[in-house]
């Protein structure tokens, strides 16, 4: 899955120099650059997820998550969400990364012999967050409504004296570091 900017160049070099000369493999290609996501209404990301589910593997380059300035600059239809979030949410939100250990490559901490594995439980994290733009003064509240019919709870979060932005309203269930 190609990405944006230098990630495209680096991934192409990795494929050309380290993969294709040594493996007889057909690589499925998905261009996840910001402009292609815009052209396809982000269908390209959903197609990439379908391929990951089918082939049980995927390699993704870094992508740009457009902000309001990029939307204007690149004439995008909307501020597309992160492909990382779409991919992770479609794959049930949990990704574990494990090190690839190569004996000929020295480690950053020479005395450390055990691998470090970070398990990031991505359910509901920043990739499922929402941003809110308010255009006037007012009160921002959050409400929890229990399924069991018990009393609702309302939380006052912020009083806006004028227009403003709320960035990244999210729920983070768990981050665990394993060593």
UniProtKB/TrEMBL annotation:
Assigned GO CC terms: mitochondrion
Annotated protein name in UniProt: Isocitrate dehydrogenase
GN (gene name): Contig8470.g9041
Organism: Stylonychia lemnae (Ciliate)
Membership in a protein family: Belongs to the isocitrate and isopropylmalate dehydrogenases family.
Chain ranges of the Isopropylmalate dehydrogenase-like domain: 1-178
A molecular-function term among this protein's GO annotations: isocitrate dehydrogenase (NADP+) activity
Co-factor(s): Mg(2+); Mn(2+)
Keywords: Magnesium, Manganese, Metal-binding, Oxidoreductase, Tricarboxylic acid cycle
Keyword Metal-binding assigned: yes
InterPro entries: Isocitrate_DH_NADP, IsoPropMal-DH-like_dom
Record-level GO BP terms: isocitrate metabolic process; NADP+ metabolic process; tricarboxylic acid cycle
């Amino acid at each position: 899955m190609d990405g944006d900017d230098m990630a495209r160049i680096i991934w192409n070099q990795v494929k050309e120099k380290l993969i294709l000369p040594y493996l007889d493999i057909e690589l499925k290609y998905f261009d996840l650059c910001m402009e292609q996501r815009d052209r396809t209404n982000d269908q390209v990301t959903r197609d990439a997820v379908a391929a990951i589910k089918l082939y049980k593997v995927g390699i993704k380059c870094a992508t740009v998550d457009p902000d309001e300035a990029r939307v204007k600059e690149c004439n995008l239809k909307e501020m597309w969400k992160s492909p990382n979030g779409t991919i992770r949410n479609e794959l049930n939100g949990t990704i574990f990364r494990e090190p690839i250990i190569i004996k000929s490559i020295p480690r950053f901490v020479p005395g450390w012999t055990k691998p470090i594995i970070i398990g990031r439980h991505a359910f509901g994290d920043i990739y499922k967050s929402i941003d809110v733009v308010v255009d006037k003064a007012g009160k921002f509240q959050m409400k929890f409504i229990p399924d069991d019919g018990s009393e609702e709870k309302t939380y006052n979060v912020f009083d806006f004296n004028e227009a403003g932005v709320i960035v990244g309203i999210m729920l983070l269930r768990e981050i665990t570091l394993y060593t």
